[in-house]
Amino acid sequence: DLGVKIPQDIAITCFDAVPPLLNCPQITTVKPPLLQMGSAALYQLLTRLENPQNPPLTSLFPCEIIEGSSS
User: Fold this and answer.
1) Tens of pLDDT along 32-70?
2) Cβ neighbours around 27 below 10 Å, total
3) Alpha-carbon 60 to chain mean position
4) Strands 64-66 and 28-31, how do they pair?
5) How many CB atoms lie within 10 A of CB 58?
6) Is 41 helix (H, G, I), strand (E, B) or coil?
7) Residues 13/67, Cβ–Cβ less than 8 Å
8) Which residue(s) pair with 28 in the sheet?
């Protein structure tokens, strides 16, 4: 124990929605749309395999913030 208090002394946020049973206090998380990200990656892979000259695509995905008591 370093005597650091969450969230008074330090704020913690994680990525990929840690299940609530694994953290105490509940950690604020960013939950990405994994299904849409996987679908977009597969689409880009298949498109590039068919035509390697196609430029890489940039995709932006909205994420959900699940606020816990850690920030």
Assistant:
1) 999 999 999 999 999 999 999 989 889 999 998 888 777
2) 20
3) 12
4) antiparallel
5) 6
6) helix
7) no
8) 13
Question: Which tens digit of pLDDT belongs to each residue from 27-42?
Answer: 788 889 999 999 999 9
User: Would the pTM count as exceeding 0.70?
Assistant: no
Beta strand 13-15 with 64-66 is unpaired
CA distance 52 to 57: 12
Q: What residue type is assigned to position 40 of the chain?
A: A
> For residue 58, what are its two tokens?
């940039």
3-state class (DSSP) for residue 68? coil
Question: How many beta carbons lie within 10 A of that of residue 11, not counting itself?
Answer: 10
One-letter amino acid of 38: G
Contact 44, 56 (CB under 8 A): yes
